[in-house]
Amino acid sequence: MWDGSHDMGWWAVVWMTLASFTWVGLVAFLVYALGEGFGRNRGYGTAKPVQGTPLEIAGRRYASGELGEEEFRRIRDNLR
Description:
Strand content: under 5%
Largest sheet: none
Number of helices: 3
Oligomer: single chain
Structural class: mainly alpha
Order of helices and strands: HHH
Number of strands: 0
Radius of gyration: 32 Å
Shape: rod-shaped
């Protein structure tokens, strides 16, 4: 042990290299998984397509209470 010989020799370099690649791979996977990979198909950030004419959309918004009567009439008059 104290005679200057190295018990593992070049195998130590091989194992250290493999361990380093393992840790780098694990960190890269975690960055991918937590950042973008797991939430990719959940629909975050995607807009729903608008269906209907502008007047129909205004009518739905008026019916749901998003628009008041005066604002709905103004939009309707501008669209006609």
